[in-house]
Amino acid sequence: MENILLEIFHEICKYVSPKDLYSLSTVCKRYRKILWLTHSMKCQNIWKTSRQRCLTYPNLPPPNGWNEDWPEQKYIWFTLLSDKCFICKDRLLEKFHDRCWEFRVNCCKDCFDKCAVRRRLRRGQPIQYFWTKDIQKAYEEYKGLGNEEERQDWVVKMQRKVQRFLQEIFDYKLQDTVEITRDLQARLISNNHHQRT
């Protein structure tokens, strides 16, 4: 009997918006446990179906293959519900402008300036930013390699990984740009409508 009730609960949740799923997960420990199983395909399917049925944004699947795979819950939080800097916890003023896909954080300008290093690798090229923790991690990994051949292989592997990563980042930034445009168009239409009435 309990399995049948759980199956019904799963089906109902697929019709609930992601924001309401978050609210539902705070009702009791049992709901939280059911809705926060990040490695359960059934749980991920609930969140994915909810996102696809109820939202036009985000429409890309969660990022994977970065330092960690993102479950649907984290992806929805990052794109829609997070309104605080991940570092200092201050409220963010600009949802899209404070999002940094490259480093998987939403953060204010002050924290970004503290945690990122800016460099121009070659004259005439744009400035690039590097997350300090990522630099430290890569350096430790590189230093731990045994010989020069392993290090050269590691460098080539990392360059390929970064290229794939940057292409994926471009897709997510494009998705954000489309959403910003859609939001601005809706505001303009709303303002024009209010001015006429």
Model description:
The protein is mainly alpha-helical. The protein has a domain at 1-81. 60% of the residues lie in helices and 6% in strands. The chain has a two-stranded antiparallel sheet with strand order 1-2. Strands 3-4 form a two-stranded antiparallel ribbon. A hairpin with an 8-residue loop joins strand 3 and strand 4. Helix 2 (18-25) crosses helix 3. It is globular and about 60 Å long. The model has no long low-confidence stretch (mean pLDDT 88). Residues 1-50 form the F-box domain. This is 17168_t:CDS:1. It comes from Funneliformis caledonium.
Task: Report the β-strand fraction as a percent range.
Answer: 5-15%
Report the end-to-end length measured between terminal Cα atoms: 57 Å
SSE pattern, N- to C-terminal: HHHHHEEHEEHH
Which descriptor suits the 3D outline? globular
**Strand-pairing-aware structural class:** mainly alpha
Question: Helical element count?
Answer: 8
Question: What does the radius of gyration come to?
Answer: 21 Å
DSSP strand tally: 4
Flag low-confidence runs.
none
What is the makeup of the main sheet? 2 strands, antiparallel
Strand order within the widest beta sheet: 1-2
Mean pLDDT: 88
The helical percent reads 55-70%
Protein name: 17168_t:CDS:1
InterPro entries: F-box-like_dom_sf (IPR036047), F-box_dom (IPR001810)
Domain F-box: 1-50
Could you write a compact summary of the structure shown?
The chain is mainly α and 197 residues long. The protein has helices at 2-13, 18-25, 29-35, 41-54, 72-81, 109-115, 132-143, 148-196, and strands spanning 99-100, 105-106, 116-119, 128-131. It has a domain at 1-81.
